[in-house]
Amino acid sequence: MRSVLAKVLALSSEHSLFTPGDTVVVAVSGGADSVALLDILLSLSGLHLNIVVAHLNHSLRGDESDGDERFVAELATSRGLPFECERADVRSLSIRDKLSLEDAGRRARYDFFDRTAVRYGARSVALAHHADDQAETVLLRLLRGAGVTGLAAMSPRRDGRYVRPLLTLSRSEIEGYLHTRRISFRVDSSNADTVFTRNRIRHELIPALSRFNPEISRRLAVTADLLAADDEVLEAVADASLKRTAREINAEGVVLDVNMLHAELRGVRYRIYRRAMSLVTGGLWGISSAHVRQVDEIVHSRKPNFRLQLPGRVAVVRAYGTVAFSRGVDGGGWDESLVVDGPGCYPLPGGAELRVEIAPPPEDLEKFPPERACFDLDHAPFPWLVRGFRPGDRIGPLGMAGSKKVKNIFIDGKVARERRRLIPLVFSNDELVWVCGFRTGHAARVSENTVRTVLAEVSSPS
Length: 462
Description:
Layout: H1 2-15, E1 23-27, H2 32-43, E2 50-57, H3 63-78, E3 83-87, H4 90-96, H5 101-120, E4 124-126, H6 131-144, H7 148-151, E5 157-158, E6 162-163, H8 171-181, H9 197-210, H10 216-245, E7 246-250, E8 253-257, H11 258-262, H12 266-281, H13 289-299, E9 305-310, E10 314-319, E11 322-327, E12 338-340, E13 344-347, E14 353-358, E15 372-376, E16 384-387, E17 394-395, E18 404-405, H14 406-412, H15 417-420, E19 425-428, E20 431-435, E21 439-440, E22 453-459
Parallel strand pairs: 1-2, 1-4, 2-3, 4-6
Antiparallel strand pairs: 5-6, 7-8, 8-11, 9-10, 10-11, 12-16, 13-14, 14-22, 15-22, 16-19, 17-18, 19-20, 20-21
Keywords: ATP-binding, Cytoplasm, Ligase, Nucleotide-binding, tRNA processing
Subcellular location: Cytoplasm
Binding site for ATP: 29-34
């Protein structure tokens, strides 16, 4: 127990997470990590923290979610602490805002925590992420493809307000602390569901890597911390370079000098572009490394004039010696593959959305409308990749021997050329399993041997 408290106190001191007398909102879900976080912060008596317990009921697991809420309320009462709780319909939020369930839940939580912090005048909101969470995040981003910023993963302090005091503790240390203190907690049944990519990393990939290095989670967390330190340096360099290369930065957008950009190192240029896009739209939603490289290509292009439309309504215009970033209109096409990690609601180019859920198959699959599909989850496992049509794409259609060109499917369906690029193609294990609205793949079909099924539906733009 003393070792755990010493590690948390050392991290707090190194990163100035708390000062004596701070009011701190502690996010408590009822699970082991957040319950331990609350008890640890209360045990750091030298800090004299004024703690507010905050719990958001996501309304996703019925009675189990309500049980979590009651547990946290009783926990706060037993410790004599203020308790703030709200309920959010995360499923409806994901549909309304075209987000996955994970993203919708995250948005609802942070919105609730922000409002609670303002209400109590809290300097910090404490989150219970630990070293194993850090390792999972690093691997998840590595599998998707990420640079230094992405692999730096979670930092002890984010956006000034959010702090993660447990990042140096492992899951086993936290569980050992709770056992020693004889503190009970709730278990979220969904954490064992390997349908979700993060859970598969936790239960399958990390145990496999542990055979090579038993300390793999700690090593990955250390790597993320080192990368975060490097990222701070690179961001400072990028800030200075942005000021040096910018001709204008105002409410209309950002205008950069092409010749000045040519003098910068490639990695610095990439960060300048990302910073410019973030200033224009307030974030980098949908922006991938491929988009950043596209911007660099037009900066170095011999063509003096060029226009590029990127996700998040980012318009990039090259005009002779300048390249300007501004708010534009949605391009309506596919620039990069969409990763579908599991059930949820995912936005698609053109305003449509893909909804995915684990559910029993309908009674009559033959009467399924073309915009819906049902697959054997063991033959179409997550993660899926969803992208637009590319020349040469082929599918082994349900009920047919061999394969067929997707181009010929579009021709048979009299699909206009300009519309073809908007039709999503769903891949699992690098195999095309669904040309949305047209044909499903034979390999992922539901049969009498199917154990688990996944339903997918593409909705039209609203």
